[in-house]
Amino acid sequence: MWTQSLDTLGSLPLTALVAAVPIVIFLACMMLFKLTGLKSGVIALVVQVLVALLVFRMPVTAIAGSGLLGLLTALWPIAYIIVMAVWLYRLSVRSGRFDVIRSSIASVSADQRVQVLLIAFAFGAFLEGVAGFGVPIAICAALLVQLGFPPVRAAVLCLVANVAAGAYGAIGVPVLVGAQVTSMEVQDLSRALVILLQPLTFLVPFLLVWMVDGIRGLRETWLPALVSSAVFCLVQGGLLWFMGPELADLAAGLLAMVSLFALCHVWSPRRISRAPEAPEASEASHPASEVIRAWSPFYILTGVILLWSVPAVQGLFTQGALGFTTVKVPIPGLTGHVTTAAGSVVNATWTFSLLGATGTAILIAVLITFFTTPQIHATELFEELRGALKALGPAIVLIAVILMLANIANYSGGSTAMGTALAAAGPVFPLFAPVIGWIGVFLTGSVVNNNTLFGPLQVATAQGIGASPSLLVGTNTAGGTTAKVISPQSIAIAAGAVGLNGREAEIMRGSLFYSLGMLVVMCVWTFVLTMV
């Protein structure tokens, strides 16, 4: 059995620096050499394999097992979820219902500064709360493109907007898992996140308006930004403080949309701001019943996923009468063959849940939409599935490469070495604590996996320096949300959704400043809180 070592070079800081080389190379390939995401990912993966093999002395079988787990996870559940979500969106467009959706949005406001608040911020948060796993980025970025936003801008806007909701996606799973792996009360972690993230969340709508139209946009549309921000933060913060994370995104996003609808019935900007290439805002008026039908794919999606998230239903798929549809596969080369630096034996499994997967819930929403939409024939249904697979194929390959890299980094001990080196900073550690979360999400693309990976480390460090464990685990989560802006997995999904496969570097360059800027804010804010 092979045991991880965090200082194979005789120095933890030096080992951690070498462990970070694949990340640096990936960013350099994208930002400096302007390679495609896939080429950058493959180069970084090769470097990661060499680092694991030569520096961490990881057995070839363990490297192969780590890569296999990354590949399988990319295909199921991640690819399954995003393909189903984009298929649902494409059906909406194919049926002609999106013309009604576009008109209904324009009837609220033809101003793109307001539309970005409505779609990227509020509706995106709603979808994050319902489904997570890149669904809001895929759907909202595509919606913005249909509304006339340039593809790169649409992708970047949705990535930045997701910071407000990313910590509580899929009915609060990141917080629930973070509390579970650190033996912490969910309420304590939820309240820590209110203190940590709400100030940044409050600023996100203003940042989005500024990204669309600069200072002039803030002067002219500060009111909808303020209303949506205030409603969102009050609802999200209140639910987190008094109830928990489960409905924090869903309710906040929904009520933020309602507040914007209400505001735009009594207020409109003096100047309508639209990109030069944007189509003319539709003046067509549609009956309320037609608008409701047009939006039906999305509330069907919401209803099915909420049903799927009920513990009793999930229990049916995992342990009940339908438990046979869930299979857990131990990963060869990892399970029982690797011991972590902390001394625990690795139990790496890939879970294949045919009925319990979120993707299956979205598939059911697709089928309900199909059977309730006479305009779509069976041949068109499968044409749109082929179209979704074709559009997302390169993104799925990139996600697989990145998850292979991430798993090799994690199981070789490289990720832990980076986190442990930062944790050795002592009393000033809170200044760097969000960076650990940022690294975790950049590698894995998931706040859940980030908390699983680094949550216990944050608790141990907090106890060692006399800081609040819930605050530092919250910081791990908050830092991770800022990394979702440039996580290769998120960027791959956004690129696939807006038709920019092979041009991921453009999205990365447009997003990096915002991710690092928000990370710095979180670092300083965390340090201030630990000093109070």
From TrEMBL:
GO cellular component: plasma membrane
Superkingdom of the organism of origin: Bacteria
Entries under Pfam families matching the protein: Lactate_perm
Spans traversing the lipid bilayer: 12-33, 39-56, 68-89, 116-144, 156-177, 189-210, 222-244, 250-268, 298-317, 350-371, 391-409, 421-443, 512-531
Entry's Gene Ontology molecular function annotations: lactate transmembrane transporter activity; solute:proton symporter activity
Localisation per UniProt entry: Cell membrane
Keyword terms of this UniProt record: Cell membrane, Membrane, Transmembrane, Transmembrane helix, Transport
Topological type in the membrane: Multi-pass membrane protein
Main subcellular location of this protein, as a coarse class: membrane
Job of this protein: Uptake of L-lactate across the membrane. Can also transport D-lactate and glycolate.
Family: Belongs to the lactate permease family.
Protein name according to UniProt: L-lactate permease
Taxonomic source organism: Kocuria rhizophila
